[in-house]
Automatic annotation (TrEMBL):
The active site is at 248 (proton acceptor). The gene is zwf. This is Glucose-6-phosphate 1-dehydrogenase. Its EC number is 1.1.1.49. PANTHER family: GLUCOSE-6-PHOSPHATE 1-DEHYDROGENASE, GLUCOSE-6-PHOSPHATE 1-DEHYDROGENASE G6PD. The lineage of its organism: Bacteria, Bacillati, Actinomycetota, Actinomycetes, Propionibacteriales. GO terms for cellular component: cytosol. Pfam families: G6PD_C (PF02781), G6PD_N (PF00479).
Amino acid sequence: MDQTATPHAIPSACDFTVFGGTGDLALRKLLPALYLRDLEGQLPADTRIVGVSRAELDDDGYRAEVRAALTTHVAPEDLTDPAVDRLLARLHHLTLDAHEPDEWHRLHALLKDRPDHETAARVFYLAVAPSLFGAICDNLEAIGAVNDAARVVLEKPIGHDVASARAVNDAVGRVFAESQIFRIDHYLGKESVQNLLVTRFANTFLEPMWNSHWVDHVQITVAEELGVGERGGYYDHAGALRDMVQNHLLQLLCLVAMEPPSHIGRETVRDEKLKVLQALKPMTAEGVDHDTVRGRYTAGLVDGVAVPSYADDLGPEGAPGSRTETFVALRTEVQNWRWAGVPFYLRTGKRMDRRASEIVVVFKPPPHAMFPHSEGTTEPNRLHIHIQPDEGMRLHLTAKEPGPGGIRLRPVSLDLSYATTFEQRSPDAYERLLMDVIKGNPTLFMRRDEVEAAWTWVQPILTRWATSPDRPKRYPAGTSGPTAAATLLERDGRSWQESDQ
């Protein structure tokens, strides 16, 4: 789907440099995504991929690591020897330390070692800890690598609160112009998330009902079956609110609630998303106590397999007395004309009973019951937007069950599965987003004011939780979270819409 009024062209030459080039993100997501785009012939013909890390690897050693990663993380039917060899031939590796500027001249020499080095697109992907963002950008500026064709990609987290987010943005912004900074949220690259804009704005029957007159409430859920895994050290300093709500869930809320832009362009979508963040009902200390729930998983069963508690998953990495949450549920509102009085419920957690990311728009019941003597049950109309694991949409309606002798009502659904409808592989989110970076299209990336507005809204929750004597509520692994999360909706006369698969 083209994201701009004027399509961005693929440059003729590109140097794609990945800092953290031997890390999990690079080997599991970034390099497989670049391979698959190269397989489709979409990378610029004159593309070089430079992995930068502290590992003592030469080019051949790095190519061996990447070959193994492709074998592990790319579907066998998509692996061909010519395509793998073509990608490996593009690869280079440099051993650099972000805090040792004397070593960086080798990167400068490599970038200049092409006839069109002044015009080739330069992508610097920072798949490293945010604490290194500033030092890397400073070194790139010092060696003269930052020109008009350069762009930098920042992985989350962008800070851990408002002040640190501003510090990170300031450090990067001293070197790169805002138009050159791509803050990535891979959820925005998912096919179903992008299709939400088309669903809303290209279908005349739906948009007139997309407001408080017809929508009862909205639920956004990102549930994971996995625990913290190898991310325990990071996660215990972040927690679910920082790791998921501040970025992924709020971005999904923005796409659901935003006003129609004049067109889907590089700044129009981001302008409208910012307005939603600024319209969120501010959180007070009392509001945090009343409208948020935090939890932490204990030992339990996931798919019939016994799994340990969060504390056991952390092991010695966990901080003594840690109160880190692995689950968050909250209630908020978008205080504007379209959404006045409509609650938005957000929920995310680890070690849940299912893996699912979905948006559920629940519509109000019909204003008048037309079938008083009917049998069967009716339910409010609902639009389920499935983001993962199976991308698609399901519209829940009420229909008459076939047969004579009266009317028997029955809930039914209209289903759209991307896999079966379009009969083609749905590109991974990183495939789409990396190509947008190469083309210089920022539409699906977060702007600085978006990031800081999201942190500003989240900050009172962080502050209240840090000072409250309450600890996260326990929930057994393999369940839908603490009972308090159900109570959050029950007091409004509502309930969570669990998976309808």
